[in-house]
């Protein structure tokens, strides 16, 4: 592993702080790992120019235990704890944790420095058997009891996990099972388990999990929605089940259950297309509607599967985010948009005339498309040239769709993707809750508003 001096680390950190590049660009430029550069910046922000000076520290067992307890109580990573306590090697925390799990506080005690003292020369040869004739009957019986206890302990430990793989909890469990037959002091000596560690493990077993039922509910919600929900959405879903729970508790329990949203945030990328005849931008980024079928937005997105392409053209109602209608096609022809618009218009009442907003794509400038809008007296609106933020509501839906469906699954064919899109859009409309809709799905929100 390459070692870097103090001057080099400071120079790279200053490059980052002077906005000469991000983590990825600078790491690639300097031949570093991105995570290493992030740690350098954190250390510099915490300790200034002295962050990279060599430090030789010898930590006591009590200090190590306090650091570990702080890490466990606050659910922090090795890197975060290392920065807080100025421990230059985050990997040493893993060693401390492993040592404490297996041997308790005694295993954290630092070894004495220097060479070990010379061993005393034995007065008798090692191969000479002990003279048992000189020992009393009580001593022989005590040795026999110890060997029986050791044999019983090793048998039970072998049956559970094996002596090599046993941790402190498993050793404590075996000692607890045998303590009715043998003295506790002898069992702890055989197990090489500190008394404090044994009673600590027993206290953990006696603790009732008061959040057991809530954990099961959280896990069920997470699995039902197949992973895209974060802690805020799961909090809303759990509250619908009758729990009065804070989102911070849900976030903590999700950490204990190792549940994390599988969705990655997506960045918007603007494409400056060719200028053509377009309708004015009448929507003006007013993405809020007071009732259903007042403002619609539409666009076309493309998927690549097994060497083929599939285009999707949906219409979204800005009132509740519901997908009013959609159409798919292997080719981005006008029929894709025309068929989608026909389906959407069929769902309108005679008096409903929503504004329909899109980008400046060629499909939306076609006479046939504009004629359909004019026949139903719908107002047409278009984004400005090369400005996808003017249609951010539709772009947001595409980002959610690709994050929760396309990027989390593998599709063998375009037909399989088309079927999954149909299922997902139904799920999106009827089951997927939104926080801004008071924890309801789009259809539930619209239905509730009509009933009010």
TrEMBL record:
**Gene3D superfamilies referenced in this protein's UniProt entry, alphabetically:** Ribonuclease H-like superfamily/Ribonuclease H, Winged helix-like DNA-binding domain superfamily/Winged helix DNA-binding domain
Full protein name? IS3 family transposase
Supply the source organism for this entry: Massilia niabensis
As recorded in UniProt, coiled-coil segments are: none
Chain intervals for the UniProt region annotation (Disordered): 105-135
PROSITE patterns tied to this protein = INTEGRASE
Integrase catalytic domain sequence ranges: 276-450
């Amino acid at each position: 592993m390459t070692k870097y001096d103090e001057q080099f680390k400071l120079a790279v950190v200053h490059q980052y702080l002077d906005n000469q590049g991000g983590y990825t660009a600078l790491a690639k430029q300097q031949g570093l790992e991105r995570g290493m550069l992030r740690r350098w910046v954190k250390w510099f922000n915490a300790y200034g120019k002295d962050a990279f000076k060599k430090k030789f520290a010898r930590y006591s067992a009590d200090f190590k235990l306090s650091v570990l307890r702080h890490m466990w109580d606050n659910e922090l990573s090795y890197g975060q704890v290392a920065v807080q306590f100025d421990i230059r090697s985050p990997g040493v925390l893993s060693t401390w944790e492993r040592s404490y799990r297996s041997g308790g506080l005694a295993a954290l005690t630092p070894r004495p420095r220097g060479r070990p003292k010379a061993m005393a020369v034995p007065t008798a040869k090692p191969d000479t058997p002990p003279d048992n004739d000189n020992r009393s009957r009580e001593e022989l019986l005590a040795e026999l009891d110890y060997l029986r206890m050791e044999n019983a302990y090793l048998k039970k430990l072998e049956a559970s996990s094996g002596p090599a793989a046993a941790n402190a909890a498993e050793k404590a469990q075996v000692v607890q099972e045998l303590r009715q037959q043998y003295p506790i002091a002898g069992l702890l000596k055989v197990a090489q388990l500190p008394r404090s560690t044994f009673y600590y493990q027993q206290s953990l077993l006696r603790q009732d999990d008061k959040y057991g039922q809530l954990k099961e509910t959280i896990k069920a919600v997470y699995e039902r929605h197949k992973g895209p929900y974060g802690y805020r959405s799961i909090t809303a879903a759990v509250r619908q089940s009758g729990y009065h729970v804070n989102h911070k508790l849900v976030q903590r329990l999700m950490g204990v259950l190792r549940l994390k949203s599988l969705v990655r945030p997506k960045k918007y990328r603007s494409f400056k297309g060719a200028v053509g005849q377009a309708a004015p931008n009448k929507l003006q980024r007013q993405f809020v509607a007071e009732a259903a079928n007042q403002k619609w937005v539409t666009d076309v997105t493309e998927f690549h599967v097994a060497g083929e392409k599939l285009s999707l053209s949906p219409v979204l109602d800005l009132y509740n985010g519901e997908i009013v209608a959609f159409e798919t096609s292997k080719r981005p022809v006008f029929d894709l948009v025309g068929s989608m618009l026909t389906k959407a218009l069929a769902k309108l009442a005679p008096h409903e005339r929503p504004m329909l907003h899109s980008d400046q794509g060629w499909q939306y400038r076609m006479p046939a498309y504009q004629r359909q809008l004019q026949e139903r007296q719908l107002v047409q609106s278009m984004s400005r040239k090369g400005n996808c933020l003017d249609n951010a509501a539709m772009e947001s839906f595409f980002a959610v769709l690709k994050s929760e469906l396309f990027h989390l699954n593998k599709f063998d064919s375009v037909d399989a993707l088309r079927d999954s899109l149909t299922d997902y859009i139904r799920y999106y409309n009827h089951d997927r809750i939104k926080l801004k809709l008071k924890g309801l799905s789009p259809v539930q929100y619209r239905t509730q508003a009509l009933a009010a």
